[in-house]
Amino acid sequence: MVSLKSKILVALKSGKAVSGKQFAARHNTSVTTVGARVSELRREGFAIYNNKKTDSQGRSASFYRIGKPTRAVIAAGYKALGNA
């Protein structure tokens, strides 16, 4: 059986932006659980970003996407670890 964390990672690696709400509905779980798995993936080193989008009626939603961290983010990580 494939874990929820693996399913999230596969979806993000496919290049699609997915909202926590959409993912929770598809996999019969809570948005909180999806957020927790995303946090675990971030701690494992995946650059997962949360972007907000607003539609024409002013409603906003947050979408996760996987990306490439900037040099500044990598430098900040090394600095936080004391390896600068």
Task: Tag the structure with descriptive keywords.
84 residues; alpha+beta; two-stranded antiparallel sheet
Gyration radius over CA: 15 Å
Individual helix count = 4
CATH homologous superfamily name? Winged helix-like DNA-binding domain superfamily/Winged helix DNA-binding domain
The CATH topology is Arc Repressor Mutant, subunit A
Mean pLDDT: 90
Distance between the termini: 41 Å
Helical fraction equals 40-55%
Q: Which CATH architecture is right? A: Orthogonal Bundle
When the domains are counted, the total is 1
Uncertain residue ranges: none
Strand tally is 2
Query: In this structure, how is the largest beta sheet organized?
Result: 2 strands, antiparallel
Level-1 CATH class name: Mainly Alpha
Strand order of the largest sheet: 1-2
* Strand/helix succession: HHHEEH
Outline of the structure:
By secondary structure, the chain is of the alpha+beta class. The protein is built from 4 helices and 2 strands, in the order H-H-H-E-E-H.
Characterise this structure:
There is one protein chain. By secondary structure, the protein is of the alpha+beta class. The protein has one domain: Arc Repressor Mutant, subunit A (Orthogonal Bundle). The chain is 49% helix and 17% strand. The chain contains four helices and two strands. A two-stranded antiparallel ribbon has the order 1-2. β1 (48-54) and β2 form a beta hairpin. α1 packs across α3 and α2 crosses α3. It is globular, with a radius of gyration of 15 Å. 10% of the residues are buried.
